[in-house]
Amino acid sequence: MNISVIIPSYHTKRLTLLCVHSFVKNFKDCEIIVVENSNEKYNGELENIPNIKFINNDTKTVDSYANAEAILVGLEHCVNEDIFLAHSDSFVFEGFYDALCHKYNEGYRLIGTFVDVHPKRIKAYHVSGLLTQKKILKSVDLYPVSKNEKINSLRDNYTIETYRNLVDNLQDEYCSGVFMDVGDSITDYCRKNNIKMFCFENTINNPEIKIGREYNEIAQHCCVWNNKVIYLHKRRGTVGLINSLVFKKGTQSWNNNCTWEIKNDKWCDTLEKKLNEK
After folding, report:
1. What is the pLDDT of residue 160?
2. 31, 126, 239, 262: which is deepest, by most CB within 10 A?
3. Using CA atoms, how far apart are residues 80 and 57, in angstroms rounded to an integer?
4. DSSP letter string, 21-74
5. Which H/E stretch holds residue 155?
6. Helix crossing, 13-26 with 265-275: angle to 10°?
7. What is the Cα 231 distance to its own chain's centre?
8. Are 94 and 72 in contact (CB under 8 A)?
9. Residue range 35-82, pLDDT digits in tens
10. What is the pLDDT of residue 167?
């Protein structure tokens, strides 16, 4: 199976490089598209990687709109029909590609690494790691939809500044899961159209899983297949950022130089060792 991998990034060069190299090492014949939503410079660090495309999208932000836009931009550059959506803070282990192929051959066309557990969401397959098809993604409106009309108004008049100001004033609504974002929209579409869906076992959806607990300190969730760790995700996207640094008032969070790298050293150090294992 030939897969195109889309990796949106925002000032996460070290994370992104680790993510890319984990796909290169553990996937077969995949195409990788990195969409950088900041002005981050890679200085040729991706040049020697086969079958990779780097797109500088430079939206200067890291919200749900920017993530959707990055995916749409990446889609225009994909040559394959089967698309894997990752986050830059994801990491692939040996066996993940075979697991995806196994479930794909069973007829599943939405294959996820974990389901969003927020009580007010629709139990969607999270966009930090899912396999689907280009025709499905092109059938879905990937931009966020909200129960709050003030947020929906951005869809017709979106600028980074209006989005920032609105989210600053609506933090409770934003954090409470009013959004239908990329993962929600894809999941909802597949459910309504009877497209077969499958999600792997993982530590966030099944706390009883003991495999992969050695990664607890660095990963938000650990995906398991045949009693082996096959996929890690460090944190849960924008919600994690809301709770840490991006949307908090009175911080420098909206500064364009804001990065996710502040607390990522342990993650990167651990997985660099893993990547260098034979």
Report:
1. 54
2. 126
3. 21
4. HHHHHHSSS-EEEEEE-S----TTTTTTSTTEEEEE---S--SHHHHHHHHHHH
5. none
6. 20
7. 12
8. no
9. 998 888 888 888 889 899 999 887 655 567 788 889 999 999 999 999
10. 54
Q: What's the confidence (pLDDT) of residue 18?
A: 93
Reply yes or no on domain 3-275 having CATH 1.20.1250.20: no
For 91, 114, 167, 254, 260, the CA distances from 250, given in Å and listed in that order, are: 33, 33, 14, 10, 18
- Which of the 8 DSSP states describes residue 115? B
Instruction: Tell me the whole-structure pTM to 2 decimals.
Output: 0.83
Q: How is residue 133 written in tokens?
A: 């098809």
| Interatomic CA distance for residues 194 and 197, integer angstroms | 9
Structure token pair of residue 199: 């999600």
User: Using CA atoms, how far apart are residues 254 and 248, in angstroms rounded to an integer?
Assistant: 9
DSSP run (H or E) holding 222: strand 221-225
For residue 199, what are the contacts with CB-CB under 8 A and spacing of at least 6?
111, 112, 113, 114, 115, 125, 205
Say which DSSP state 251 is in: S
Burial 139-154 (b: 16+ CB within 10 A, else e): ebebbbbbeeeebeeb
Which residue, chain included where needed, has tokens 């930090």? Answer: 128
d(C-alpha 208, C-alpha 203), whole Å: 7
Identify the residue whose tokens are 């908090």. Answer: 248
Sketch the domain layout of the chain as residue ranges. Answer: 3-275
How distant, in Å, are the alpha carbons of 6, 85, 132, 180, 271 from that of 112?
Answer: 15, 10, 9, 17, 22
How many of the other CB atoms lie within 10 Å of CB of 275? 18
> CA-CA distance, 214 to 31, in Å (whole number)?
30
